[in-house]
């Protein structure tokens, strides 16, 4: 399969997520990074591009220059990855979408609902595809869980428990010069959500993705425990889903002992499932009245959906980067199909896109609104 | 140490919890069961008593007869264990308390708030002691956690996550003739709480016991998933504690894959703790910024509080019955001290009593009220 | 069921295992401790007996006096528990066996092979029953594993991996005045085996019990890592079983991180089983080609053999003391049947007795001999 | 950093390990695959190369043609990956080494000792570097363990327990047409070792790498459980190390429930370490007398050695492919340094090379010889 050409906005030297996107794009050899506007100043952008081995003429000063130039090249990029802080998702996305260049955007969609709606309009108006890297949906055993529920293996759903605890913001890291902490705790760059935007949206997206349910209303109790912090660092949320299921969502960045503890449990009339991001090659399945079963990625009991997202046999653990790569490779499949005039692959429907982005923004807004009203129910 | 004499009300042949109380009372050789009104009919009571090896003249037709007779005997019982369904806690308790006989009562305190207040009055009026078997507080590593938090080892508390999922009521067991299910799902015998009364009170009690905090308000979303069930089988609850900590409590009896999954996590400014009832010999402790530590009962890192509740070395697991026995042995220590005119042991203050019972009833009432108001905040 | 009367030899104040036997005997209310020769001097014996609430006239100066007196009493003990160091198992056992009093003896059988053979002769000559407390065979999930293998659920056996690591003798505890360490590292009191006698025999017994196999030969590499220690504190052993299965056994008391890590894995042509003593309520079962299943004591997937050894529902953990109690209660069943002229219960065949004791002694002897010959194969 | 150019011998369409090498080479963007002789026939080689996007003129009919052509090109490959069955490691390796092209070779080194010695001679005679993909040494927490032991954190070593159980050959997969099974069970292609060659060498290498010890002698009991299988599918091995440590190694491919269960435990005078390949982001460390600590990759308690091998923060799991990539990136560092006339990086010394290969061959030979002599001790 021929490689697609990738550009990147943001993701310069000291960013975490830019490097993740680059590795993810490489793992299956479906993408080659050829262009970038990688940092906030022209100098840093060019230096970062050179360090990554980009041709000098494709190291751009800013996204606007890049969008114009790449659109004009006969060998211009097929897609752009946008890995800037939240408030800088929409402007570059629009620039590329307007030129028909596909977009792979980090989550949450934007910093404001206004931008989110504008993003949706830009996607609607463009012929290009838009992907949002809710990467946890790319884990093989998450796909396995999704498929099992869709197939009715645990019956009609009743209870959904999802949590995403971390501990790195237990202290005021934002006062220590840590960039990752600075922008995430700054409403101007992050938007109205702190932990709920950064990780709560992942948890919410995962719960909806796996269950196939839509939340209809929520009640949220947001709080900042670290003095002076402007955005929530802990959120307790009750959820009600269409069809009658109920749930809880906990996101926290002040929970010592949890590094990146995204965990989902779903209970239906005939069984239960449990998956933890930190041990992602396992999926617990309990058919009610039978012993718990430990399904393993590409091992006995895991099906074609997980296998399609796997590269190596069971017992050889895959991790975060491979799950992320599944989003990139799925995007490549879709873009290649579109380019070749073929129908989109069936699997494209499982990739997070603009709707997942809007759902996440609605989730953040509802949490903030509910919390402002002392955790009253807010419709989604 | 001389043994104390125990009587029992309820706990006949097919009861679960009666047998537990009897084993718990025996483990440390502090009690001898000598009298009982074990079943709901005189015939069954006598048969049950005979099966347990009680003297025929101490197998009573009912609790009233037993209270009168035992109070009159020079070798009468020191204490009575009450292990009937909730609505039958208060009448026998009062009968024994009024005669100065100590009471060890199963939880929750009563089926109604009215009975609970009458119980409190009876305890107040009596010279006898009253213990409520919130047995999970008797686990050594629960005591370890309590002591660590009291000593400030994880700093000022911020977040309390407690859950108690089970799966046995996933189907309508109450329609299959299972007695345990019948009365627990019957408002007349259980009171207003289903899962919140049966297991939610345990979770709530455990959270308060370990943290030393009082909840000040809660918002509860109760639900019955099994058609026709009159009491909640799933409860999602948000909590606010004095001092500013916030928490979540989930109790469920429709969560396949969870047998008896009581689990508590507490997070403070400088660390976190985690304990699970199904693996009770372990306590996870994370000092923020350091690796997680696995403390083991009577092993390295566990202190005198856990050791005082342990019988055997680390690595030799103790379980539910030994934790329960710690309540019984603690009660024996207190009763013996009282009898001998000595001050109550310091440890007696950690034993669950009438206040824990009232707190549990207030918890149930607040949950029911909040849920009736669509999960509005209810003060405790 | 009427209680049986128990006496005890050894097990005075600062002993570990005496207290375990006493609790184990009480748990199911099948035994009452009424007599003892609990310590090595008459004064200490009487003080220990008084502390345990024994009648003064049944606190004996030594086992010989006790055997004679109890045999002469109309209400004499039904059985005696022998919980002395290994070299003091045979003399009291013989004294009681010769008088027709049943014996429950701690393991290993004796300190010397000579004593072991004399013990076997004494058992043979007596009408009394003899039980050896290889208590780990009393765990419900060990019985479950034994039953599954006997029923062919994992097919013809191929590989048996058993290990029993501890860490308490990592340093020279025997030089610190710790009695438990002193006699266990003293050949005069322990016999020729150090870790292999103290814990290796448990591992070996467990492997044979669960698999139903006999080992036919072994090769052992014993070593003492702590300077000055006279007996092995680490043993690496290869095993060959009748029928062609092969195995490894590792016992160690110098393995930091292992408190009491007895663990057994058995692999057959169609499946595998795994059980760990420190988490005894679980049994992993993998049918080849299917997902691993986590069987729980008294939970889904565990059968009547485990249920018969359990007291409380799944999810309510039982532990070491309950497993030990199963040996005591099984012994009571057998003794009561014999007394009543009934056939021994079927389950009696699963209780460890003199043959298990002789097997353990043969194991120790073969290990020592093999190791002396540089780990050459030694027949069993 | 400029990319290096990689060629590949073997690894065509249905091979497992070829794909792994390709992904591993891509992850850090240090290598670009540009040439290959990927299959056993010219036609398949060319088809496989085309499928991977290689230029047609660099899809070679066989390794000899490739070595000659690439050596002659000004833009010829920097290194070749050899991922053929064992008996086909030496011929291509020699062809490339002789032309000064660096070699990255799969393990074990060769199928025969004769070839191994010839390989060593070829490496010796060449200016090119030789790497052997004992990939498990590339896991960050394996490096962490190695560094801790080297720093004395668990004291002088006493006991080394290593095991590598799998279950995929529980049945005769070699009779079902599965290529992976066919050549691994064929002495002509695999050499004298079955499980010991395929996975036992990994376990042995890992134990030596982490401990820094050399084994001086071993006693091995090899066995084939599956009827008709010519090579061992289970191996029990006792080890003695220089300095006095002792160990056990178990490799098995007939252990249902184990997918790829490589596990290492090392015990020293002051502590213990434990690592499992299936959960590779964790390392257990017990300082004797203190609670167990769970070190996590890039998390609290893990040091610079692990960090240097990591790409993403703790809690975001890395897996098998990233560990494998560390070998490839380390090789790239070394090759680039050599090319640039710089000293080899310090880390190069940790990469497995010809000595590790010879050690593995000596291990296989000693196992086979020992087993032929009924598990007598064989010097290494």
From TrEMBL, chains A, B, C, D:
<feature type="domain" description="GFO/IDH/MocA-like oxidoreductase">
    <location>
        <begin position="142"/>
        <end position="274"/>
    </location>
</feature>
<dbReference type="Pfam" id="PF22725">
    <property type="entry name" value="GFO_IDH_MocA_C3"/>
</dbReference>
<dbReference type="InterPro" id="IPR036291">
    <property type="entry name" value="NAD(P)-bd_dom_sf"/>
</dbReference>
<dbReference type="InterPro" id="IPR000683">
    <property type="entry name" value="Gfo/Idh/MocA-like_OxRdtase_N"/>
</dbReference>
<dbReference type="InterPro" id="IPR055170">
    <property type="entry name" value="GFO_IDH_MocA-like_dom"/>
</dbReference>
<dbReference type="GO" id="GO:0000166">
    <property type="term" value="F:nucleotide binding"/>
</dbReference>
<protein>
    <submittedName>
        <fullName>Putative dehydrogenase</fullName>
    </submittedName>
</protein>
<feature type="domain" description="Gfo/Idh/MocA-like oxidoreductase N-terminal">
    <location>
        <begin position="5"/>
        <end position="132"/>
    </location>
</feature>
<dbReference type="Pfam" id="PF01408">
    <property type="entry name" value="GFO_IDH_MocA"/>
</dbReference>
<dbReference type="InterPro" id="IPR051317">
    <property type="entry name" value="Gfo/Idh/MocA_oxidoreduct"/>
</dbReference>
């Amino acid at each position: 399969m021929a490689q697609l050409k990738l550009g990147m906005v943001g993701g310069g030297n000291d960013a975490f997520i830019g490097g993740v996107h680059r590795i993810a794009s490489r793992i299956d050899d479906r993408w080659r990074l050829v262009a970038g506007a990688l940092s906030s100043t022209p100098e840093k952008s060019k230096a970062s591009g050179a360090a990554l081995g980009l041709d000098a003429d494709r190291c751009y000063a800013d996204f606007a220059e890049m969008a114009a130039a790449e659109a004009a090249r006969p060998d211009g990029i097929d897609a752009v990855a946008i890995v800037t802080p939240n408030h800088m998702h929409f402007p570059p996305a629009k620039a590329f979408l307007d030129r028909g260049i596909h977009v792979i955007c980090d989550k949450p969609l934007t910093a404001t609902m206004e931008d989110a709606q504008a993003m949706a309009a830009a996607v609607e108006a463009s012929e290009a595809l838009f992907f949002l890297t809710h990467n946890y949906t790319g884990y093989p055993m998450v796909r396995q869980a999704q498929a099992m529920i869709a197939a009715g293996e645990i019956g009609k759903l009743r209870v959904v428990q999802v949590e995403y605890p971390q501990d790195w913001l237990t202290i005021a890291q934002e006062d220590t010069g840590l960039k990752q902490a600075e922008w995430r705790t700054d409403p101007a760059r992050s938007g109205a959500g702190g932990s709920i935007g950064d990780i709560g949206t992942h948890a919410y997206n995962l719960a909806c993705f796996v269950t196939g349910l839509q939340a209809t209303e929520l009640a949220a109790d947001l709080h900042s425990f670290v003095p002076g912090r402007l955005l929530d660092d802990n959120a307790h949320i009750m959820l009600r889903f269409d069809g009658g299921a109920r749930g809880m969502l906990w996101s926290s960045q002040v929970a010592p002992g949890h590094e990146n503890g995204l965990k989902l449990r779903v209970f239906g009339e005939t069984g239960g499932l449990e998956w933890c991001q930190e041990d992602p090659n396992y999926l617990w399945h309990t058919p009610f009245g039978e012993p718990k079963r430990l399904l393993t990625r590409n091992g006995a009991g895991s099906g074609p959906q997980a296998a399609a997202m796997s590269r190596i046999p069971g017992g050889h653990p895959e991790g975060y980067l491979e799950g992320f790569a599944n989003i990139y490779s799925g995007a490549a499949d879709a873009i290649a199909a579109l380019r070749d005039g073929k129908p989109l692959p069936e699997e494209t429907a499982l990739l997070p896109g603009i709707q997942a982005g809007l759902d996440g923004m609605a989730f953040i807004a509802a949490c903030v609104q509910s919390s402002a009203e002392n955790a009253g129910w807010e419709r989604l």
